[in-house]
Amino acid sequence: VPNAAGTIVTVALEGHPEEVALCNRETETALGSAGGRRLSEEEADEAWLSRSYEFRVKRLGPGLVPGSVFVPTDRFPEAVDRVYEAISDLGMKAGITGLVADRTTVDLLPYYIVDDRKMLKGLAVMSFMKRLTDISLALGGRPVGVGLWFAQNLGRVHGEGADVMRAIKRSLDPDNLMNPGKLVEVGTRYDLAVPHTVMNAGLGLMGVLKRTLPPDTEPGETAGPGGMGWRELRAEGDELERGKDPDGEGEEGEGG
After folding, report:
1. What percent of the chain has pLDDT over 70?
2. Count of alpha carbons within 13 Å of 27, Cβ hemisphere only?
3. 0.85 cut: is pTM over it?
């Protein structure tokens, strides 16, 4: 943590005691050379137990789909309002968290429960990710990444730079073996690219389909095997606040 107000890097060391001790010394040396310091035992434990706090909500159901977009700090309230409007319009059960990336940018992180066992409904909620991308771009932001399902947004995010990225990809990977269909364009198993207009239109139609389906139920009511209710989730949150790890993780090595 440089100057006691920088980025916290969480490091978990596991293995043979001598190996852990060696890696621990090397880690401290690297921290010192970068102007950082090792957190106290209390600070490290708190950071470790909170590393996946928001994603505890996945325990409410079979699956969780997170989204991530950057929006200007001064447009953050409007972005939150628009995202909740999209959630309501699509009849979804979802929540929003946010991280301050810097003084001008907020990373907006909505997430929602999805039942992967129901293929039609599971695919339909992907339209929310298109809505999220559209909202961020309209407010002067952008999606954090592209990847599977959303590589068609490369041009919308990077403009003319997208052509340069595609040229580099073709030069380094002429046979399209690395991340096919997920990096510079959406593809199919038959090595055919899907035009961005077709992909976005398809995601828009999924939104129409989602609005015709029954609204999502309360998480935990029909989650099926592996799901849990709000009461259990709150109890787990209370354990975290008391400094206990409900999963019993982080005991094998050292965190800092």
Report:
1. 73
2. 17
3. no
Distance CA 133, CA 145 (A): 10
Looking at the fold, whether 142 and 207 belong to one and the same domain comes out as: yes
Length of the chain: 256
Beta bridge partners of 84: none
Distances (CA, A) of 166 to 103, 170, 172, 217, 251: 32, 6, 10, 42, 45
- The answer to whether residues 138 and 108 touch, using CB atoms and an 8 Å cutoff, is no
* CA dihedral of residues 221, 58, 154, 90 (deg, nearest 10): 20
Tokens 């600070």 map to which residue? 43
Looking at the domain assignment, is residue 75 inside a domain? yes
What does the alpha-carbon distance between residue 213 and residue 201 come to, in Å, rounded to a whole number?
19
